[in-house]
Specification:
By secondary structure, the chain is an alpha/beta fold. It contains 16 helices and 12 strands. The protein folds into 3 domains: 117 residues, Rossmann fold (3-Layer(aba) Sandwich), CATH 3.40.50; 82 residues, NadA-like (Rossmann fold, 3-Layer(aba) Sandwich); 78 residues, Rossmann fold, CATH 3.40.50.10800. Helix 2 runs parallel beside helix 15 and helix 4 packs parallel to helix 5. Bound molecules: 1,3-dihydroxyacetonephosphate and iron/sulfur cluster.
Amino acid sequence: MPTSAGALYDKVRHVIPPIEWPAFSGDIEAILKLKRQRNAVILAHNYQTPEIFHCVADIVGDSLALARRAMEVEADTIVLAGVHFMAETAKLLNPEKTVLIPDTGAGCSLAESITPADVRLMRERFPGVPVVTYVNTSAAVKAESDICCTSGNARAIVESLGVPRVIMLPDEYLAQNIAKETDVEIIAWKGHCEVHELFDAGDIRDLREAHPGVMVLAHPECPPEVVAEADFAGSTAAMSDYVAREKPPRVVLLTECSMSDNVAVAHPDVEFVRPCNLCPHMKRITLPNIREALEHNRHEVTIDPRVAARARRAVERMLAV
Ligand code: 13P
Ligand code: SF4
């Protein structure tokens, strides 16, 4: 990666207007320097804004890639530019390292939809049925689970268990979308992503009418009727790969807003139609609070060791599939 802010602007000029750049460049210079001084790396999710994603992050990707790549980190400190459950996953996989989240309020409506006691109740209701837990959950919920999954591997994880029935928590829509792809019976919870639940099938019909030929890509956290009307559904990384592979002249990504900006940087010839919904949690992460995280070593992610040991098992079991 270039080591000065000036050299980076060329990369993002397509999505960041010149007038906005001076507001970012000072923090970018400072963060690049702090990373070197502290031997730190920044992991950023695909929903981070382009000045974070393209200008200060060392590792970017969907939840699965961030978890996998977190295991390869050699630096002493990891700053997670994403939401709290992602920082917890990085900590689970790097118990000896310092993991920082720039804003502890960066939560997730799915993670908030379920508690460890809820998982225990589901087990009581469906004895012997394994629990597959989406990574968008707290470490305490993961600790009650048999195995984790992400939107990128959910079907493979469900089928890897070799059982006729699984409990899949907490995203009801992801569970319903995966149920359509597999013979395994899926018992769902009632959590929803506050960003993706806002899309509906009527939006897709309107988009097709207003933008003839548009390819519609949807995240599997969208309601099943949205996924059914879309041309493709997949994790944030799968959507990005689809654009790189198929190079559709016109595309819409039914997901969080920054995704289109980040993918557009590499594909200036693709027209991105941009109805999108903001994730208020992802948007809590900013250049100034990443800089403060590195300057003041905050906010350090800690997990009770007894919880961590059980949660780590569920994450590692997923990564082994
Ligand atoms: P991905 O794993 O597809 O990146 O999704 C994470 C997320 O929070 C989607 O809302
Ligand atoms: Fe959670 Fe939805 Fe935000 Fe992803 S987009 S972090 S699932 S609230």
